[in-house]
Amino acid sequence: MANPTVTEQSPRQESCLRYAVLGSRRLSNYFWATVVSIGGLGFFLAGLSSYLHVNLLPIGNPLELVFIPQGIAIGFYGVAALLLATYLWLAIAWDVGGGFNEFNKETGFVRIFRWGFPGKHRQIEVSCPLSDVQALKIVIKDGLNPKRSLYLKIKGRGDIPLTRVGAPLPLAELETQGATIASFLGVPIEGL
Questions:
Q1: Which pTM was predicted?
Q2: Rg (alpha carbons) of the chain, rounded to whole number
Q3: Following CA atoms 172, 152, 190, 150 in sequence, which dihedral angle do they give, to the nearest 10 degrees?
Q4: Are 29 and 88 in contact (CB under 8 A)?
Q5: Labelling 30: which of 13, 91, 156, 162 has CA 20 to 30 A away?
Q6: Which parts of 83-146 are beta strand (E)?
Q7: Cα separation of 108 and 61, whole Å?
Q8: Domain positions in the chain
Q9: Cα 52 vs. chain centroid, distance in angstroms?
Q10: CATH number assigned to the domain covering 16-23+96-190
């Protein structure tokens, strides 16, 4: 699998640094959406089979289930799983959380862009002058719920996250990306 955060710096445009940010189109999301879809469909068909007294599944014998309470409970779990699978597949299709971070010395602006859910604010974009960037902050927290993130500290605003949500970045990649951005912007690194 390709590295989710890739530096896209062209030799002719060294005044612009751009990092792609992986959103919902991660391998783990495809895996869980598929598992939940198959499981939900199986549960739904088992519940429907117990109601119709017709075996709709290629394996197992759901005809032995009594519709009330077993069939209705299994059907309910199937519907809930199919709704969850629909949400996962739509989030993948819309690439929620995906986008890029762009640091451009030609225009003098930092541009952070992410895709959200459809609606009025589907495109989430934060832009600020390079002169407002105070520092790059690295947050590393190990343990049961590890966190490895990069934040941009900007005058008059809160810290803006630069890394993806979900699985933490490998430490070496986080340090390399942080050092590259800080060097490019000429700002200090905090949190190490």
A1: 0.80
A2: 23
A3: -30
A4: yes
A5: 162
A6: 99-104, 109-115, 123-129, 133-141
A7: 66
A8: 16-23+96-190, 29-94
A9: 40
A10: 2.30.29
